[in-house]
Amino acid sequence: xxxxxxxxxxxxxxxxxxxxxxxxxxLRPDPYHWMSTPSEAFVDHLVAERSFYDAATGHxxxxxxxxxxxxxxxVPATDxxxxxxxxRFSYYTEHAPGNDYADIFRESPxxxxxxxxxPPSEGASSAGIRSSxxxxxxxxxxxxxxxxxxxxxxxxxxxxxxxxxxxxxSGDEVYELRFRDLRTGADLAEAVPRTYYGGAWSADSQWFFxxxxxAAYRPHQVWRHRLGTPVAExxxxxxxxxxxxxxxxxxxxxxxxxxxxxxSRDTAETWVVDAARPEAAPRSVGGRRGGVVYRVEHVRETDxxxxxxxxxxQELRLARAPFPREHDQDHTAWSAVRAEDPAERxxxxxxxxxxxxxxxxxxxxxxxxxxxxxxxxxxxxxxRSRFAQGAVRLARNTSYDASVVTVVDQAHVEPxxxxxxxxxxxxxxxxxxxxAPGHDxxxxxxxxxxxxxxxxxxxxxxxxxxxxxxxxxxxxxLLYGYGAYExxxxxxxxxxLPSLLDRGVVYAHAHVRGGGEGGRRWWLDGRLxxxxxxxxxxxxxxxxxxxxxxxxxxxxxxxxSAGGLLQGAVFGQRPDRWRAxxxxxxxxxxxxSMLDASIPLTVNEWDEWGDPRRRADFDHLLAYSPYDxxxxxxxxxxxxxxxxxxxxxxxxxxPAKWVARLRETDPDWSPRCLFxxxxxxxxxxxxxxxxxxxxxxxxxxxxxxxxxxxxx
Length: 712
Hints:
alpha+beta; 8-stranded mixed beta sheet; 712 residues
């Protein structure tokens, strides 16, 4: 295999400054601590790192370009979503040819459909019928010179005359909120410069609720804005003083309630505001109890709330609560509706006229269950994915009175398919399937394996390959993992993946503990003092696949953010296992970051990782912290690290410090460690836009293929 570094390229040498942390009597040297303070010198160092990366990967430019062209070829020139219905219009998104961003349109109800053909332009006729197609938002028009654009919320008012929309133009997840008059197409004068995710309209379309985050990027306040008034007159509705908790905000599908959820990793409290009385005080649905989480949905017919909670139910159960309008209430007001099923993780409940839809996970598979409102404890109708190892979930359904719901079904090699499902019958009718030019799903095979971890627990693994690629120990492997926050990466269609599979690479996703694939118990067994299980599971999957299924000498691992921590840990604990490692925006300076309450996501993550101010938590965090435990010199795999200057989730100094320490502790290996850092606009997950993201994937895949000896 070729050296990834051109002869003229040498890695930058980071400045060292003596510094020691002292906690619980333990000294931790940190010669790159200076990077955690913003400075011109640090930015210059990042620029030098990016220059080195560009030079070191220059020989892969041709391969990267070919990969990007292949990926883009699987993206339809015009990509139109399935519609979602409101009372006056049907809405949908559409990517125009060559457009990085999907625009939003609307048409008269019953006209909007998903078509594999390019739809007519505004006002054009089809089959003799003049289209009522109306542009709601041309997203690309919101961009500025930075080249980065991330759309936040897009919420149409109940009367469908105003669109609330927000945009981030740097990647720091600070969104400017505006309001567009859909009758004129012009934005109103008022603009809220700093908002976060989530929003809700009042029933009369005159008030809008939004969230604001603090200096640590924690959404801690809900504000109320009245259209046509200065933003300076906005009213603070609710503030969460406990730094462990974050606020989220939404309106219920019924239109009857504005819901505010305050949630830490293992505790929650929910408030509701009557949407018809937007100036009323929010009322607590069930109070706050340590270790108890709950979320609610409004049922219009009974004017009460359905509650999904873990109260005396590890995998969660369904309860019913009165709608508190005048006073707060606690959980003693609740009544049982549907008991916990220990084999099923109940995730959420969605209410429609006469029916509810449960979203749940069973046997590591995401499913839906349709239930009539009068029999919420009954068996209902279960909807499963039509694809091997796929996932089915509710699409965007905005109409409460619908007799059918739209679901979306997809898998790693199956582009999304939308179907209308009868709530009373479960009968499905396909309404839309995303085109993927030149891609034939029948050319690929997806399967599931269960491999044993070091403590005997079986870890599920999804394996994807080209039909002609054997699982006989000869093919290289890209192994992906995450394993945190009870989060599950669903098997979404990715137009980039076939470019890897077509070259004989096997792709596998290890569903390690710490994630949510095995339910809440799976998360609990991979967090706090049990975090080592996440790393053990990942290595055990690689060892279990090596030899019998794939080439053990050509295994490349990959993960992002908390998955980047996973990569940092297994890089240090089992460097002999990997041909190469891709650690994207990795959370690797674990102890130092979790001791610094001033940086984003620290305090509210103590319940996920541990609070190192406590000696027991300090010890288990230090035991696996990648920055504090570089592997021995010699025998290290190649390493690609990413980061972004404006990333508010994993501050860029973490990967920068880790790269510097790794290079310092193994100078001969140093040129094989690359740091791809975004020094301008760029987010936690990379460049924005569908083509920008595919270009990034092409770069990563080119490096991976080169490490596997397939860069041809």
